[in-house]
Amino acid sequence: MPETLWRASLVLALYRNRHVAHARYFQLATTRPDGRPANRTVVFRGFLGETDSFIVVTNLHSAKVAELQSSPWAGVCWYFPMSREQFRISARGSIIDGHTNDAANALARRETWRGLVESTQRSFTWPEPGSLRDSSQPFIESETDPENPPANFGLVVLHPVEVDHLELDGNPQNRWAYRLDESGRWQGREVHP
Amino acid sequence: MPETLWRASLVLALYRNRHVAHARYFQLATTRPDGRPANRTVVFRGFLGETDSFIVVTNLHSAKVAELQSSPWAGVCWYFPMSREQFRISARGSIIDGHTNDAANALARRETWRGLVESTQRSFTWPEPGSLRDSSQPFIESETDPENPPANFGLVVLHPVEVDHLELDGNPQNRWAYRLDESGRWQGREVHP
After folding, report:
1. Which of A151, B2, B96, B106 has the maximum number of C-beta atoms within 10 A of its C-beta?
2. How many domains does chain B have?
3. Interface ipTM
4. Residues of B in contact with A165 (CB under 8 A)
């Protein structure tokens, strides 16, 4: 079995589910400072270049950034409703902010910003997420520069080390487990669902 | 604001999304023995009686059971695609197996089993989940008793202590944070998305 079949399977799932907008959403679990798991929906923004790592955007003040900085491991769960398959991915998360010295990372941050729709760009001017809101007051948002990201715009890059791929419509189901070994090569095997 | 508005909001979301089968699926994050988060899709099987706690079924040999027994905190993320809203729930997880001495728990286990479709019941006779599979061999499954659950059938009961409810279609979005206080009462407040 080709070792990185998981990536081809994920690309195929994205294609097969392309008509369902929320098939590009997945759930990202991190560990809170109190040790409990946190879990939220995020939007897939593509792979980082030709790597196996993939990108989500974030407000750098959001809890997931602090959580990943203190405990870098993330648990991704991605369910594809049309093809009825699930990817569970254990990944290390890293953050790209405006201070990066890496040219490829800086480019990824800028290009990802430019790919966002205007309403998503404007959400980066909203008040601090999670702060108390008085909904009798008008909601304040500002214009943003469509070409250049604001200081609070960052990327979370997820670097997979384990992938569990489950097809619910199988014989009766199909499941594969992939793992990045110590030499940096992917190993895959078929397992019972 | 009524303190337990989150439960009414969740019931309403279930109703509004009733025509989408996968709206009853949510993502459950737990902590692995190595401290990393694990995340998987599970199916909502209802509330436990009149409580705020809700049920998923499990094979008692599955990793999530061992994980919750060593670290009971769970991170639930539930996205509703039709109404475009998300519930993030921090919950304590407990397990109900066939050895429970609690009559209500034993009843919930039996009633939940009886509510499963036959193909789901039969999946409890499959080989150990995650064990190596030789797909050149036929897949083995057995009949089950539709009335009485097998020994490996259990419930995970999730007892919420924090709920974050986000409506993506708002003005421009709406978000509420609820928390169970030390006296066992829910407190809610509106926060910035």
Report:
1. B96
2. 1
3. 0.95
4. none
User: Is pTM beyond 0.90 here?
Assistant: yes
Residue A187 lies in a domain: yes
Distance from CA of A43 to the nearest CA of B (A): 12
Q: How far is B19 from chain A (nearest CA, A)?
A: 13
Q: Are strands A85-96 and A153-167 parallel, antiparallel or unpaired?
A: antiparallel
Beta bridge partners of B155: B57, B96
What are the mean pLDDT values of chain B's consecutive 10-residue runs (193 residues total)? 80 96 97 97 96 97 97 98 97 98 96 97 94 88 94 98 96 93 93 93
Phi, psi of B159 (to 5 degrees): -110, 100
Expressed as residue numbers, the domain containing A41 is 5-128+141-191
CB contact under 8 A, A37 and B31: yes
Pairing of strands A153-167, A174-180: antiparallel
In a domain, A13, yes or no: yes
Residue A134 belongs to a domain: no
Count CB pairs under 8 A between chains A and B.
Answer: 143
CATH number at residue B23: 2.30.110.10
User: In this structure, is residue A136 part of a structural domain?
Assistant: no
Enumerate the residues of chain B whose CB falls inside 8 A of the CB of residue A132: 189-192
Measured distance CA(B155)–CA(B99) in Å, rounded: 12
